[in-house]
Amino acid sequence: MRVQLKYFAVVVPVVGLLSGLFFITLQYFFDVVTPLVSGEMAYGQPGYYEYQAAKDLAIIVLAVLFVLIIAALYLAHRWHTKMVRVLGPRPGGYPGKWQRWLGTVSDPGDVTGGGPRGGRRIKEELQHRNED
What we know:
Layout: H1 2-38, H2 48-87, H3 97-102, H4 119-131
Helix pairs in contact: 1-2
């Protein structure tokens, strides 16, 4: 539980700040591009080149922020999986659902798997019952 809290304590502020800057820059980009697309600002008018330069700068800033958001999420995910591996298996030894599905674990609730209870025999009996 502490690993998840540390993960969210790092991810939420960093990604929240970067996402906020991303959306503010996206709004600025739309504000700059709207006069260019609608025809209010045409080639040759005063301020046209300033709008084009602002549009280009906004695109560059948006790309950099997008890459930073993806990098922050990737690094946080790597850190989280590393910390979970360091912690080891869950207390009590409860297996993951995929292990129960594969039948590799002897679990009291597992009908098809597990060596001590004769899982193959029970599995075959269940298959024969379903065929009838």
